[in-house]
Structures
1.
Amino acid sequence: MIKRLIPVAEPDLGPLEEQFVLSAVKSGWVSSIGEYIMQFEKEFALFCDTSYGVSVCNGTVALHLALKAADIGPGDEVIVPALTFVATAAAVCHAGATPVFVDCEAEIGTLDIEAVSRALTPRTKAIIPVHLYGHPVDMDPLLELARSHKLLVIEDAAEAHGALYRGRIVGGLGDMATFSFYGNKILTTGEGGMVTTKDDAIHSRLRILRDHAMDPNRRYWHPEIGYNYRMTNVQAALGVAQLQRYEEISGKRRKVLEAYRSAFAGKEEAVIINPHSDWAEPATWLICALLPEGTSAEKRDLICGKLRQQGFDSRPYFIPLHHMPPYRTFRSVAANGGKELIVSDNLAARGFNLPSSTCLSEDVVNNISSALLHAIAMLL
Ligand SMILES: *Cc1c(COP(=O)(O)O)cnc(C)c1O
């Protein structure tokens, strides 16, 4: 008998999503003009306590569009954490700029401000802090550093819808922020993304570039090269429904996290679940598990293999980007100024994500947790 693997992530879609999508389809407005687009942009900006939301077709182009709207391109350096999903760095390359990788903070994995300050050169134009696995970056010192060097800050909040940094919601903390609504993110539109900003000028640049750079006052006149990065009204219908259900969805995710926390209470020597700073109220995205300091990636993979045999899927942490062929040639900078990003490497080897869907019952979480503890006892 083939047992279905319990996946790491599943979308939480219900009758409200069905109703709004159906209504979008029935209205005939299935491309990128429509009521749901305007509503989603307005309500998402409000949710992020910021002024404008510009919807786009995914989180990667959200980053690309943000960089283009800020005129970042060839010759410019953009500081990104080495420990992130590849899209953060790929978008910098798409814009023709150069990513510079920095090391991360121990345990929580967000970019290290000391490393950022060591990475600055006269070519540095922007920093992309990533609110990794739902945990916000320590924004105050980062913003202060950015301000004193006149650098742009674009939050990559793809994994952190609704996370709080010292009581302030992410998405309006920097000059711009980008979001993804991919199927495994906290809120989903299938594929989709958003750029948020408070800046009027940047907002109009984002809108023009997203829509083929057409002159707002002259139809079919394109003074520069633009993009078609629009989201559809059908996707936005999903987005409006998901946003209305944010409290419900994030509440369910928190309950899953709490079930894991109690299952591993007192077992911190074997595994740490979702470490966080006292100044952060992270969004609950994928559940993070960290094996003891010094555990190798091979050991971690063996443990995850055991979990899989028991019917539970998992994901290793992101592989730090400076190891990968297209990114190897770029500079990388640690907090001590060195090139070895040991904190990122250490965390990436020890970390993995456990099944995190809203539909998981406490019983299933308990089964996953005992299977994990058993695998650790056998293999570590
Ligand atoms: C998911 C993700 C993205 C990219 O989003 P897509 O919608 O998949 O293009 C970018 N950055 C981070 C940190 C992500 O997790």
2.
Amino acid sequence: MIPFIKPKLTEKEIKAVVKVLRSGQLAQGPVVDRLEKYFKDYCKVDYCLAVNSGTAALHCALFAAGVEQGDEVITSPFTFIATVNSILMQGAKPIFVDIDESFNIDPDKIEEKITKKTKAIIAIDLYGNPFDYNKLLKICKKHDIKLIADSAQSIGADYYGKKIGSIADISTFSLYATKNIMCGEGGFVTTNNKKFADKVISFRNHGQNPARRYEYLELGYNYRLTDVLAAIVLEQLKNVDKVMDKRNRNAQRYNKLLEGIPGLILPIIERDKKHAFHQYTVRITEDFKSSRKKFLEFLSSEKIGYGIYYPVPLHLSEHLKFLGHKKGDFPVAERAAEEVVSLPISQNLAREDLSVIAKKIRDYAT
Ligand SMILES: *Cc1c(COP(=O)(O)O)cnc(C)c1O
């Protein structure tokens, strides 16, 4: 079996954890402080706050941006449920805008959805591919709304020479076990805005006044990261550029080895962006040798792991029925959900395994 993902911890991470365990300081403490400083410097952003999941990071971001009950937040229906749930957690209404061929929110379809109630846009760097920050920042400025980047999948990516995490009003990251940099469960919020940072510091700690213990300013949650997990992330972050390079090299090799197969659409590698390649996602279209279903059966029979992100666009999910959407509302996302397949791309994937996967797919499809 060639596994789809291959999370790996080294002796370095294990040693770092043991050191924290021996220190006796298990909750948020000095290692979290060090981690925040490390990631803030890496992104060249003014503030980084660590939290205990990517979902918590999104919730903090929405709170900091002032999203409240009755507000509207624009986002894409082609994302992980956490993006949309965080909007609901603040009592706001998710307003979907379809994606374009990049799988990210279509900037040209956003403005028609902006109303007096719109407070923010959450755009997602889906699969690790930075969305069109320049266009979205322009729209947000024009309408005086905030841009939140769900960068759960794009840690380490660049956009016109800037690190993801330093461009939007607020950015969020996930350190969940399958992400490029991970510790099981964790997340970051980054921003250049001191007011937003102060809000996050309070919100992740029960709404407590950061300057005065047991004085509560507003409703908050317990979203603190532990020093035990922070120690793992600190070790992993030292390798983030290596992880990026390996994943980008894997993507380039796939693109070369799979080029020209009828009906198989490969990811585009753009010059002005550095993609994090959290996923290497191809599309199986009408002109391909078989249906996607048959292709997936073939991959399983060859013991090649794969993923489908995401099989159901969120406007069609049971949970979000109350929004009143129907099939046909977001056709580009719906088609993507039927066509996408993600292939193994992990930094831990063996070079030979990638060649084997590509050869088997080519043999199958031609
Ligand atoms: C992983 C992920 C999240 C949520 O992160 P958790 O750490 O699992 O809470 C949010 N948005 C996207 C796009 C993700 O991929």
